[in-house]
Design brief:
This protein has 25 helices and 21 strands. Strands 2-1-3-4-5-6-7 form a seven-stranded mixed sheet, with helices on both faces. Strand 6 (157-160) and strand 7 (166-169) form a beta hairpin. Helix 14 packs across helix 17.
C-alpha cells in the first residue's frame, strides 16, 4: 500500500509584506510526531506560503490536508480547503488549533460557517491528528477515505458526518513528557524555512495556569504545564544558530509565561551561549510570566537588552481584573518591578487592553497613569479582540457586559487569487461596553499612539529626567499633549486627525459587508498601497518616527514648557534648548538611506552626557560647562545592518517600516551621542538607555 500523502499548512500572507513571520513550528510538531508513529507509511509536506501550496496542488494532490487555525488565517484556510476538495473529492480536510468556540452551540455554528472542515482537532494536535491517520490505516484501501472516516468516532476530534451531524469524541489526553515529540528542528523537517524571511521559533513548555476570560488559553483543559527538557531546548537553539542565515537576527519563544519557572534561567543561559558563539540572536521576543516577577526578572536579566520583560497587566483596576478572572495575577506587583528592572538596565514593556468588562474612561486613564509612572519603557495599549475559544466571546458574557463590537481587517492579511477573488482575514473587536462609549474609545486610542511614540523613544529620556526633578511625570506630559493637539504644527494636527479617522474607518458592522467592499479593484488597491488594512497604531507610529520626529519633538518641548512654566528655574530656556537639541539629534533621520552618513551635530552649554548617566535625579543646571561642547549623533554599523536587513525583508515603504518598529530592538533605532573634542570622539551611547 502506498504512503498516505499529507499536506500541513500554517499560512502567512505576504502580498505586501509578511504578516506572520514565525516558523511553522506548530505543524512541524504534528509532522514529526506522525512520522515517528507511522514512519515511511506517511509522506508529509509543510507549507507556510500560500503561493507554494497553490503550486503544489497543481501537480500533487494529498489525501489529507491539515490547517493550523488561528484568527489570522482562517479565511485563507477556508479558500484553500474549497480548492482542495474540488481537486480531491475523496480527501479529508482537518483543522486544528486554539481559535475554536468553547461552547457546543457556537461550535455547530463554526462548522456551518466553515463547511469545508471535515474534522476539527481542538487544543493540542499531535495525538488527535495521529488518531485520524491511524483510523485510515484500518481501511482496506485509500479509495474511500472520506466516506469511511466521516462515519467514525475519532478520539480527540470532532468529526462532521456527511449529513452535517457532529460526532464529538473529546479527550483530555495530553503529552506530558514533551520530548516524546521528535524535534522538527533536529530531524530536519523545518530546514526549508531557514529562508531569511521567517523567524525561528522555539517552545520550552505548553499550558497556562491562568483563566483570563479574553484569552483562548484560559481553558481548564490546558492549565497544567508540560515541558520539553532543557537539554532538548539547548540542542534546538544550537541547531537554529548554526542554520540561521546572516540576515536573520531574531528568535521567538512561544511559551505563554516565559521566565516564571526556575528552568527558564537555564534556557537563557543557552541563549547567552549561542549569542557568544554565533552572534545570534540580537532580539528575543517572549511573552513573560504573570506571577513570580522576581524570578522572571532574574531570567530576563540574563538576556540583557536583547529582550524586554513583558508586564502584561491589561488593567490595574481590581474590579475589572475580577471581571476577567485575572484577580489571581499580581498586576500591581508586576508594575512595581518596573523601576527595579530599569535601574538594572533592563528593558520593560507593558500590555494594557482597552474595553474590558467594567472599563470606563477614568479607569483606563488611571491604569495608563499608573503604568507610565512605573517607568515602563514601552506600553502597548491594545483593542480588545473577541476570540473564538475565549470565555468572553460567549453569548452569556457578551450579554452580561453589553459588549459592542465591530469588524476589521487583520493587518496585511489579504490576497487576490488568479480568479480575481479577494480573500482577507477579519477580526471582531470590542469598541465599547455599558460603561465605555465609542467616543471614549477613539480618544483613548489617540492617547495610546501619543504614549507609544514618546515612551518608546529613548531620546526623550532627557526631557523625562528634567521634568522628574520638578515632579512633572511622563503621564502629565502625554495627557497634556492629548488635550492640546491644537497647539501642534499643522502637519501634526493633520497626522492626529488622520489617525482618528483611520481608527473609525477600519471598523465595519459585518464581515460580509467588509469582504464585499474589497472585492472592488479600486478598494483592493488601497490595501496594496497601505491606505487601508494596516495595524493603525504600528503604521502611524512608523510614520511619526520616519517623517515627523522634528515636529513631534517641538510638540513635546512645547507641552513641557507649559507644564514647567509655574516653576522657578534658572536659565530655563537655555536648559530646555539644550535638551531639545539632544532629543532632535538622537532621533533624526532614522530610516533614511543616508542615515549612516548624515550625523547631526549640536553645541551644548551643559555636560548633558554626564547628567544623563547620573543615576540620581539631579538639576541640569548643576552641569553647566565653562566651555561649550560639541556632540555628534551617529548610528553604528550594527544598527544600520540590523534595520536594513529587516527593511529588505518587509519592504522600504511605510508598511515595511511599521513591521520594523515591531521587530527591531528599540536600542538599535536611535542615534548615539558622541562627544567631539580635540582628541577625537568619545562615545556616550549608554546615556540613551537610561
Amino acid at each position: 500500500m502506498r504512503p498516505i500523502k499529507i499536506f500541513l499548512c500554517d499560512f502567512t500572507y505576504d502580498t505586501v509584506t509578511l504578516s506572520v513571520d514565525g516558523f511553522p513550528l506548530n505543524v512541524g510538531y504534528i509532522a514529526s510526531y506522525a512520522k515517528m508513529k507511522f514512519k515511511e507509511k506517511v509522506e508529509i509536506h509543510l507549507f507556510k506560503y500560500i503561493e507554494k501550496l497553490e503550486e503544489a496542488l497543481e501537480t500533487s494532490i494529498p489525501d489529507i490536508i491539515g490547517f493550523a487555525n488561528y484568527a489570522w488565517n482562517r479565511q485563507i484556510n477556508k479558500e484553500i480547503s474549497r480548492i482542495f476538495l474540488e481537486k480531491n473529492k475523496n480527501g479529508l480536510v482537518v483543522w486544528g488549533g486554539p481559535n475554536f468556540p468553547a461552547d457546543v452551540k457556537s461550535q455547530e455554528s463554526f462548522f456551518k460557517k466553515f463547511p469545508q472542515v471535515d474534522i476539527y482537532v481542538p487544543i493540542e494536535g499531535e495525538i488527535g491528528f495521529s488518531n485520524i491517520v491511524k483510523e485510515i490505516f484500518t481501511l482496506p484501501s485509500f479509495d474511500l477515505i472520506r466516506k469511511n472516516i466521516l462515519t467514525k468516532s475519532v478520539p480527540g476530534c470532532i468529526v462532521k458526518s456527511d449529513n452535517g451531524k457532529l460526532n464529538f469524541s473529546f479527550s483530555t489526553e495530553r503529552i506530558k513528557s514533551l520530548d516524546e515529540i521528535p524535534s522538527p528542528y533536529l530531524t530536519g523537517i523545518l530546514d526549508e524555512f531557514f529562508d531569511g524571511r521567517l523567524v525561528p521559533m522555539i517552545q520550552t513548555n505548553r499550558g497556562c495556569p491562568f483563566s483570563c476570560t479574553f484569552c483562548v488559553d484560559g481553558s481548564d483543559s490546558v492549565n497544567k504545564i508540560n515541558q520539553f527538557s532543557t537539554q532538548r531546548v539547548d540542542e534546538e537553539l544550537n541547531y537554529i544558530a548554526k542554520h540561521v542565515p546572516n540576515n536573520q537576527h531574531n528568535l521567538h519563544i512561544s511559551d505563554l509565561n516565559f521566565g516564571m519557572y526556575t528552568r527558564d534561567v537555564e534556557v537563557c543561559d543557552s541563549i547567552n551561549n549561542i549569542q557568544e558563539k554565533y552572534g545570534y540572536p540580537h532580539s528575543v521576543k517572549i511573552s513573560s510570566g504573570k506571577n513570580n516577577p522576581e524570578k522572571i526578572g532574574k531570567a530576563i536579566k540574563k538576556l540583557g537588552n536583547t529582550t524586554s520583560m513583558a508586564l502584561s497587566v491589561q488593567s490595574l483596576n481590581d474590579e475589572i481584573l475580577s471581571n476577567i478572572k485575572r484577580d489571581n495575577i499580581s498586576s500591581e506587583k508586576l508594575v512595581q518591578l518596573g523601576p527595579v528592572l530599569k535601574n538594572e538596565g533592563l528593558s520593560t514593556v507593558c500590555d494594557v487592553i482597552l474595553g474590558l468588562p467594567g472599563e470606563t474612561y477614568d479607569t483606563a486613564i488611571q491604569t495608563i497613569k499608573d503604568v507610565l509612572n512605573a517607568n515602563i519603557d514601552w506600553i502597548n495599549i491594545w483593542t480588545l479582540m473577541l476570540l473564538d475559544g475565549s470565555e468572553l466571546n460567549t453569548l452569556k458574557e457578551r450579554e452580561k457586559w453589553d459588549l459592542k463590537s465591530k469588524f476589521r481587517i487583520i493587518p496585511r492579511d489579504f490576497v487576490k487569487f488568479k480568479s480575481g477573488k479577494v480573500v482577507m482575514e477579519i477580526e471582531e473587536v470590542g469598541i465599547g461596553t455599558n460603561s465605555l462609549s465609542f467616543d471614549d474609545y477613539v480618544e483613548l486610542r489617540l492617547f495610546s499612539l501619543i504614549i507609544k511614540i514618546i515612551s518608546a523613544t529613548p531620546c526623550y529620556g532627557s526631557i523625562f529626567k528634567f521634568m522628574k526633578f520638578y515632579d512633572v511625570t511622563i503621564f502629565d506630559l502625554a495627557f497634556s499633549m492629548l488635550k492640546n493637539t491644537n497647539l501642534s504644527s499643522k502637519k501634526l494636527q493633520i497626522f492626529f486627525e488622520e489617525f482618528k479617522q483611520y481608527t473609525i474607518d477600519e471598523l465595519w458592522d459585518s464581515e460580509a459587508e467588509l469582504i464585499e467592499h474589497y472585492q472592488n479593484p479600486l478598494e483592493y488597491e488601497k490595501l496594496l498601497n497601505g491606505s487601508a488594512g494596516q495595524n493603525v497604531a504600528f503604521y502611524f507610529h512608523a510614520i511619526a518616527i520616519s517623517d515627523h520626529m522634528s515636529d513631534f519633538t517641538d510638540f513635546v518641548m512645547q507641552n513641557s514648557r507649559i507644564l514647567l512654566e509655574n516653576h522657578t528655574i534658572d536659565d530655563f530656556n537655555s536648559q530646555l534648548n539644550s535638551i531639545e537639541q539632544y532629543c532632535k539629534g538622537s532621533c533624526e533621520n532614522i530610516f533614511g538611506e543616508d542615515r549612516l552618513k548624515s550625523n547631526p551635530e549640536f553645541i551644548f552649554d551643559y555636560d548633558i552626557l554626564t547628567w544623563m548617566n547620573t543615576g540620581v535625579t539631579a538639576s541640569l543646571n548643576s552641569f553647566k560647562l565653562d566651555q561649550k561642547s560639541k556632540i555628534k549623533f551617529s548610528l553604528t554599523q550594527e544598527q544600520y545592518d540590523v534595520l536594513e536587513d529587516k527593511l529588505n525583508i518587509f519592504g522600504h515603504n511605510k508598511i515595511g517600516k511599521s513591521q520594523c518598529v515591531n521587530w527591531v530592538p528599540q536600542h538599535l533605532f536611535w542615534r548615539k551621542p558622541l562627544l567631539q573634542n580635540n582628541k577625537g570622539s568619545r562615545s556616550a551611547g549608554s546615556s540613551l538607555d537610561k
